[in-house]
Specification:
This protein is an all-alpha fold. It has two domains: 51 residues, Arc Repressor Mutant, subunit A; 127 residues, Tetracycline Repressor, domain 2, CATH 1.10.357. 71% of the residues lie in helices and 0% in strands. It is built from nine helices and no strands.
């Protein structure tokens, strides 16, 4: 790769990172002017790299998928038990909330979002963990791995909200979500000492 191409890649990545960071704190994608300002580039430079808002959003989605996939693969989900694997999934996905804000906010409305790519990059590595949990007898056999994943996704989303809204730490959420999913919300029987 030439030096010029490397610089272009860095500029494009910086713009995508700035836009993703802005989206994490907003309810809708930021304006192109705001992205240019946050990235520290002129609007003309922004439009040279991303001629349309949709082009920028497509790049944000692609970046989110690659980053998340790499983090999940690097989490070692295949070498730990189910509970620790779920905690590691939480540790990857909760801090990556900005990346998921991109995926959630645009997945249904913008061209270029390929559900198969989301499946391969994000769902696939986690689904393998649930399949292993079924094979080991740790999970209810009356539900499929995909159904378990869907249920855990609801718990994970709530944990993300608790981190962003209630001040819970990522580590607290990573401990809470797997336990709540695997053990339920029922209070433990009190131990009575005679």
């Amino acid at each position: 790769m030439s030096r010029g191409a490397a610089v272009q890649d860095l500029v494009a990545a910086g713009i995508v990172a700035a836009a993703t960071g802005l989206l994490a704190d907003a309810t809708e994608p930021p304006t192109m002017a705001r992205v240019a300002q946050a990235a520290g580039v002129a609007r003309a430079t922004l439009y040279r790299y991303f001629p349309t808002r949709e082009d920028l959003i497509d790049a944000m989605v692609a970046s989110a998928l690659v980053t998340t996939h790499d983090a999940l693969l690097g989490a070692g989900l295949d070498v730990v038990d189910l509970r620790e694997g779920l905690a590691r999934v939480c540790r990857v996905l909760i801090p990556g909330r900005a990346r998921f804000a991109v995926l959630e906010s645009v997945a249904d409305g913008v061209n270029g979002v390929d559900r198969d790519k989301v499946e391969q990059a994000v769902t696939g590595p986690v689904l393998v963990l649930f399949a292993r949990g079924l094979d080991s007898g740790e999970l209810r056999p009356d539900l499929t791995a995909r159904q378990h994943l869907r249920l855990f996704g609801g718990v994970l989303k709530a944990a993300m909200e608790m981190v962003s809204r209630d001040g819970m730490t990522v580590e607290e959420a990573a401990a809470l979500a797997p336990g709540l999913f695997l053990d339920g919300a029922a209070a433990r029987s009190a131990v009575h000492i005679a």
